[in-house]
User: Which sequence fits this backbone?
C-alpha cells in the first residue's frame, strides 16, 4: 500500500502476503499435478477437448499467479519491496517490459480460455452429434488463434518502457504509451464486452439443459458456470477502476484499500475456482490427482 499523505510506502502487511501465498500454494501444486497427468499419462479421463482447454487455462493461471505475486502483490504488501521499486523504477526502463508483457499476455490467455471452455460445453449440449468432430478438427486452430490474439492484444506493452507509479493508493507497473490510442486497457475493454455477452448467453443455455445431460457432463458444465461467474466479477473490478477517475481513489483511501482487497479476492477466486470445482464435483479426478 502507498501512503498518499507523505508519499511513502505504508507499513508492511507482510502477514497478508504470507497468508495469500499459503492459500494459493496448494492450488498451484494441484495445477502442476493436473498438468503432469494430462500431458504425460495420456489418461482416458482427460481425452476430451475440455481438458486440453482447461490445461491451457491452468498453465496461463500458473504464470499469471507467478507474475502477480512477483511484483504487483509484493509491492502492495511489502513496504521494503515497494520502496525499492519506487526508488529504482520510477523512470521508464525496458527492464520491466518483459514482465509486464507476459503479465498481460496470460491475462488475455485466461480470458480467451474461458470463452473456449464455454464454447466447448455449449457445443456438447446444443450440437452433441457434431461436438467431437468439431473439436477434433478445430481445437488446435482455436488454441493457436487464442495465443496469436493474446500476443497481439499485449503487444502495446512492447512499444515503450515500463515504470512504477502510484495508482489507487498502491504502486503499480505501467508502460509508456508511444502509440496514440493503442493500449492494452482499450483491448481489454474490446475483448471484455463480447466475452461477457457470450459467456452469459452460453451459460444461460447450459443451465437450462442441466437436467437433460449425463452426470459427468453436468459436472463439467457446473464447473464452467462457476468459472464464468468468477471471471465476470474479475472483469467488473477492472471496468470499475478503468472508468472511475484516479483522483477519486486518492481522495478516499479507505475505499481504495477496500477496492484493492476486493480485486485481489476476485482474482484469486477466478484463479482457483476451476480446480476447486472439479475436485469437489468429480471423485474420479480427485482419485487420479491425489491417489496416483
Assistant:
Amino acid at each position: 500500500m502507498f501512503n498518499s499523505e507523505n508519499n511513502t510506502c505504508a507499513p508492511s502487511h507482510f502477514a497478508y502476503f504470507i497468508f495469500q501465498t499459503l492459500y494459493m500454494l496448494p492450488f498451484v501444486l494441484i495445477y502442476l499435478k493436473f498438468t503432469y497427468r494430462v500431458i504425460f499419462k495420456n489418461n482416458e479421463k482427460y481425452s476430451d477437448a475440455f481438458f486440453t482447454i482447461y490445461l491451457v487455462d491452468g498453465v496461463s493461471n500458473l504464470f499469471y499467479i507467478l507474475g502477480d505475486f512477483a511484483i504487483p502483490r509484493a509491492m502492495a504488501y511489502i513496504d521494503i519491496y515497494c520502496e525499492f521499486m519506487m526508488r529504482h523504477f520510477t523512470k521508464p526502463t525496458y527492464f520491466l517490459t518483459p514482465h509486464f508483457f507476459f503479465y498481460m499476455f496470460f491475462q488475455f490467455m485466461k480470458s480467451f480460455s474461458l470463452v473456449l471452455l464455454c464454447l466447448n460445453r455449449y457445443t456438447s449440449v446444443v450440437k452433441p452429434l457434431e461436438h467431437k468432430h468439431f473439436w477434433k478438427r478445430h481445437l488446435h486452430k482455436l488454441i493457436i488463434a487464442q495465443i496469436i490474439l493474446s500476443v497481439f492484444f499485449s503487444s502495446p506493452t512492447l512499444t515503450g518502457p515500463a515504470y512504477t507509479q502510484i495508482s489507487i493508493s498502491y504502486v503499480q507497473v505501467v508502460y509508456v504509451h508511444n502509440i496514440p490510442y493503442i493500449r492494452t486497457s482499450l483491448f481489454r475493454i474490446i475483448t471484455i464486452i463480447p466475452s461477457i455477452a457470450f459467456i452469459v448467453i452460453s451459460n444461460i443455455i447450459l443451465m437450462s439443459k442441466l437436467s437433460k445431460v449425463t452426470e459427468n457432463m453436468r459436472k463439467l458444465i457446473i464447473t464452467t458456470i462457476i468459472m464464468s461467474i468468477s471471471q465476470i466479477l474479475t472483469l467488473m473490478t477492472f471496468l470499475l477502476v478503468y472508468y472511475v477517475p484516479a483522483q477519486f481513489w486518492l481522495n478516499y483511501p479507505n475505499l481504495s484499500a477496500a477496492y484493492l482487497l476486493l480485486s485481489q479476492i476476485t482474482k484469486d477466486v477466478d484463479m482457483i475456482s476451476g480446480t476447486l470445482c472439479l475436485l469437489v464435483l468429480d471423485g474420479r479426478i480427485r482419485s487420479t490427482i491425489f491417489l496416483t
